[in-house]
Amino acid sequence: MKVVQKKICLMGDFAVGKTSLVRRFVEGRFDEKYLSTIGVAVSRRTLSRDGYTLNLLIWDLVGGNELSHRETGYLAGTAGAIVVCDLTRPNTLETLQRYVHQVRVSNPQAALLLVGNKADLVAERMIDDEQLMAVSQALRTEYFLTSAKTGQAVEEAFNYLADRLETIYDPSTP
Predict the structure, then answer these.
(1) Whole-prediction pTM value?
(2) How many CA atoms lie less than 13 Å away from 38 in the CB half-sphere?
(3) pLDDT tens figures, 165-174
(4) Based on the structure, what is the number of domains in the chain?
(5) Beta-sheet strand order (sheet of 52-61)
């Protein structure tokens, strides 16, 4: 069976839950301890697709201000990106356009997905579905409400992006 490898990046501000989302998707677990990513952390998960195997190389990028010149290089070869906001912090939604711009400069064809994380914190939620819908429409992508803690919609979000990679990239080519 053919093996296709695609690089995806997780981007968003500090402490939105990027590392926790990756850990939930790759390892099936959640850790309460906050682990700040320094630079980039790379993980891999293999998905069975129709007629081939898809190896997702998942690059968890440092959050925060503009990526430095070196960190912008982390986007080279990106086939897709998940941009993440924290549903309890409205300012994290406002910065997503910047991350999307950085991805699109690197690869205008990259598949994108917006994720509103920490959906389990219902009482603390400050970003509503209408706000997410408006941003996702402006970015020309879909959005998912996820919780790395409970696992809510994490598999679905990553699989949605994997499906988008299929529609943009021909799996018969590496």
Answers:
(1) 0.92
(2) 0
(3) 987 766 555 5
(4) 1
(5) 40-49, 52-61, 2-12, 78-86, 111-117, 143-145
